[in-house]
Amino acid sequence: MKRMSLKASKKGLLELSLIILAVFPVFVYGQENISGIWKVREVKYVKGGQYTNGVPILMRIQQTNVVTEIEITNSMIDHDTVFSQRIKHGGDQFNESITTSGKRKTVTMSWESDSSRWLKKSIIFEKDTPLKITQTTVECFYPNGSNHLTLKKSVEVIDDVENEKDYTIFAYYEKLTEEQLAWETAKGSGVEFISNHTWQQLLKKAKKESKYIFVDCYATWCAPCKVMDRDVFSLNVIGDYFNRNFISIKVQLDTTKNDAYDVKQYFSLARKFEKEYSIISLPTYLIFSPQGKIVHKIIGQHKPTDFLTKIKESTDPQKQIYTLYDSVYNKQIPFNQYRGVARKLRRDFGEEKMAVNIARLYQERFVNNLKDEEILNKENLDFAGVYIGAIQTKDKIFSTIYRNRQLADSIMERKPIGSYKNSWSYDFIVSVLRNEIINPQIKEAIIKKVEPNWQVMDDQLNKIIDR
After folding, report:
1. For the chain, which terminus, N or C, has the lower number of CB atoms within 10 Å?
2. Could you tell me what percentage of the chain is helix, strand and coil, using 3-state DSSP and rounding each to the nearest 5?
3. Cα 181–183–188 angle (5° rounding)?
4. Pairing state between β 246-252 and 212-218
5. What is the pTM of this model?
6. Burial 226-265 (b: 16+ CB within 10 A, else e)
7. 284, 217 Cβ separation under 8 angstroms
8. Any residues with CB less than 8 A from the CB of 200 and at least 6 apart, and which?
9. Cα distance between residue 56 and residue 71, in whole Å
């Protein structure tokens, strides 16, 4: 049996080690490898404008001990852009390049063990003044287990005095295999939007097929609407769910000289929806039950998986916003949930009028039956202040605050200066009186083109104060 010499053995081990290092690069102790295919799942805009291409919709990352290669896919309004970066990382590594506009750009990337993150910093310099910085971009990659990654991206434009171009975005990514990515992004059998049907025909069709009606309210100028058409409604995975459960139509809210007949036939419907369902931003999606009753609304641009989750929620009576409103109106949920429903309607769905209606019911059905000491807490006062349009002078909360102005100011952590300045109770009382007495009288006088009857207003105000 032949024996290998110690020298030969060491040489063989060294060669084997070099091969292993080349194929499977060893990471510096403590660094987390974020290699993989990362698809964005959720985006949160913290500061600045909501840019369609603010963060990548897809990142292919390959890391070794010294280099990070990133292929980035950004979503534009009508197409995707793909570009690649090769970044040497580490505290002393410096990457320099020239942008397409001829500006000098430097990029550094390093692992920060204290924060458990990869920090990437890009600096762009002025073209004619190579040392003058025009923009800085800081990207922080936070690994969260092996399959999730959070990206915080902050952009600062140096010459932007008003900070209108600066923005900060959080994006949350999930790691996919090639097979998963192919399945999620496959196109060809997306959402089938039908046309040339009257609203009555759609209602009959929905009832007959036991399907919900999905209405895409859009405008020709709406960039997020176009992104949804291209990146969401065109996907097989979205179309498969929609086409099995919904009858889908598009309703254009603006008008152009090039509008086709099937667009024009819904113009009256567009005006009706716009008014009845408080459509103040686009895109807005309305969901009707198979019986033709409005049950839910979704607002804004969403990523495919996020949108699929929201559309599935739209068929759940426990999460349908208009069904929830009806439950409040018909006394089917407890009083302690009224405030949460009102806030949700206003904050998430832009339903200001419905929110105020619920706030009004909260006063009539609950607060007006409480004792003074039960009314005077921060939750009740804060809610009344936010929904001031729901408060009337006959309400118990109004008289209670009027009699206990100093205590109300203390609860709301206000320290009045003199009798009125910085007084929460004074602002509250004046706002209620203005809404109930002053504003209606002035509005009526403007319509009739006459001088407001100040004496009548004065008498009404004194009557309330004396009461």
Report:
1. N
2. 40, 25, 35
3. 120
4. parallel
5. 0.73
6. bbbbbbbbbbebbbeebeebbbbbbbbbeeeeeeeeebeb
7. yes
8. none
9. 10
**How far is 221 from 212, CA to CA, in rounded Å?**
28
Q: Which tens digits make up the pLDDT trace of 213-241?
A: 999 999 999 999 999 999 999 999 999 99
- Residue 254: name the closest of 276, 265, 270 by CA: 270
**Amino acid identity at 31:** Q
d(CA 191, CA 229): 9
- Cis status of the peptide bond prior to 283, with omega within 30 of 0: yes
- Segment 406-429 shows an average pLDDT of 92
345 close to 360: Cβ distance less than 8 angstroms? no
Q: Could you say which DSSP state residue 283 is in? A: S
**Cα–Cα dist 39/174, whole Å:** 5
The CA distances from residue 273 to 93, 230, 269, 278, 358, in Å, are 57, 24, 6, 8, 21
Residues written for the chain: 467
Mean of the per-residue pLDDT values of the chain: 89
Between CA 112 and CA 90 the distance in angstroms is 10
